[in-house]
Write a structure and sequence with these properties.
The protein has 65 residues and is mainly α. The protein is built from two helices and no strands.
Amino acid sequence: MNERRLSAPQNIEQRAYELYLERGGEDGGDLADWLAAERELAELPEPSNPKAPKDVRPQSPAGSR
């Protein structure tokens, strides 16, 4: 199954509202705005995890060089 990262509804709502304003605030495009906002936000790269180790290398056995 292809897992897709979904954005919080508040983020989608905010972006959909921005799209609504960009097209002049005309009624009738709410579903298209919402779907476009979902698509845009789903395509954003994953935020980095600042707590994740930056460079993990396997440790060599003690005494081997």
